[in-house]
From TrEMBL:
It comes from Photobacterium alginatilyticum. Pfam families: Acetyltransf_6. This is GNAT family N-acetyltransferase. The lineage of its organism: Bacteria, Pseudomonadati, Pseudomonadota, Gammaproteobacteria, Vibrionales. InterPro entries: Acyl_CoA_acyltransferase, BioF2-like_GNAT_dom. Residues 200-349 form the BioF2-like acetyltransferase domain.
Length: 392
């Protein structure tokens, strides 16, 4: 498939001069790039950028093959060197007589396909030039693509794309949360064990749970050593996850055929390299749970758990127990961190020693129609709030 350049007539935006030392940043947008060439270019930049797992070609390439038909490639270069890459997917407005489009960074805009939960989203950038190259890429995206539409970015570090505001765009937060991480190097630096960094309550709950599980038999961690074993663990996880989160659209990802197809693809590509890691944790013959993690850049990213809540003992804590065991394993393996990612839940707060805000934003250029839409949205919100019953 050949690269096709598309340039659009758009609204006014204030481009910022992008000079880095003696070099300028040149940005281009291509439609439906050749994916084999893109894979090579992406991997080359990835090796220098050392991004999060979600900007690895393993994730991005699997996403493209599983979820994306048409896309735009944003490419930033300094001379002949590629310093920034990003992929946008366009989604038409669902409103009648509305020709505007939304452009999603490393997402599709389709809720079913975006059930994959992309996190730490950004352009793939050389770290030493990241801020200026990101701004140059945003300027090009608004000038040649977005127009009076919307650029959607997230889930990302809150405010990461706010240089779009310097270009004249307006921002609207549509989702926000907190990402939790346990910095394992800080434990080592302070010569602390995992137990020592836990609260008294957290430590007590975990120890009590471990003792209850040990009464069922020896606690073991079985880590998938092959693609077949990993796919088998995913199949075991499915009914537990469906039971916990529901089998209707928008509930468990396992109720979503695209979600399942994507993860089959990801497991087939990433298990042998050790980047996709599935664990089954047992007490004797009784399953405690299946934990699905990513190991990348010497970090552990916790992605998904399917836990056994069928045992009728309220003192059994399958999630706390499983993560306690795997965090200790990560410590012994010399990993830098155990990242729980976004979502404010008790078990994440129990283990984490750092947190950061994350959000999804809509960026739009000022336009009369957009201002009217915003005013109507605010009016609707005020009316809705006005109709709510007063607190008792």
């Amino acid at each position: 498939m050949l690269m096709q350049k598309k340039v659009f007539s758009v609204l006014s935006v204030r481009p910022l001069p992008m000079e880095l030392g003696n070099h300028s940043v040149q940005c281009d947008i291509s439609y439906n790039p050749d994916r084999d060439k893109l894979a090579k270019t992406w991997r080359q930049l990835e090796a220098q950028a050392q991004p999060s797992f979600f900007l690895s070609w393993l994730w991005i390439g699997s996403w493209l093959d599983s979820c994306v038909e048409d896309c735009y490639l944003v490419e930033a270069c300094m001379g002949s060197e590629v310093v920034g890459l990003g992929i946008l997917v366009a989604q038409k407005s669902k409103l009648p007589f509305d020709s505007r489009k939304s452009y999603y960074l490393h997402r599709t805009g389709d809720p079913e396909r975006d059930k994959l939960c992309m996190e730490y989203n950004d352009f793939l950038l050389l770290p030493q030039y990241a801020e200026k190259v990101r701004t140059a890429m945003l300027s090009t995206v608004f000038l040649t693509l977005v127009g009076n539409g919307t650029l959607v970015v997230g889930a990302s570090q809150a405010g990461l794309f706010d240089s779009a505001l310097d270009l004249g765009a307006e921002r609207r937060c549509v989702w926000d949360s907190v990402a939790y991480k346990l910095d394992l190097n800080s434990l080592r630096a302070n010569q602390m064990s995992l137990d020592q960094c836990l609260s008294r309550s957290g430590r007590y709950q975990i120890k009590r749970s471990l003792k209850r599980y040990e009464s069922l038999g020896e606690i073991t961690i079985d880590t998938a050593a092959s693609v077949e074993a990993a796919l088998g663990m995913l199949a075991v996880a499915e009914p537990y996850h469906l039971e916990r989160w529901g089998d209707q659209p928008g509930q468990s990802g396992f109720a979503n055929p695209t979600f399942k197809h994507f993860h089959h693809c990801l497991i087939q590509r990433g298990t042998d390299s050790g980047e996709v890691v599935l664990h089954s944790i047992f007490a004797g013959d009784e399953l405690i749970g299946v934990i699905y993690n990513f190991h990348y850049g010497n970090q552990v990213y916790f992605y998904l758990s399917a836990l056994n809540y069928r045992l009728q003992d309220k003192h059994l804590k399958p999630g706390l127990t499983a993560h306690y065991l795997l965090i200790n394993q990560a410590l012994s393996q010399g990993m830098d961190s155990y990242d729980f990612m976004a979502g404010a839940t008790r078990y994440k707060q129990t283990f984490a020693n750092s947190e950061s805000p994350v959000a999804t934003y809509h960026y739009q250029l000022p336009h009369f129609a957009l201002r009217v839409e915003g005013s109507l949205r605010n009016l609707k919100q005020r009316i809705t709030n006005g109709n709510r019953p007063s607190p008792s």
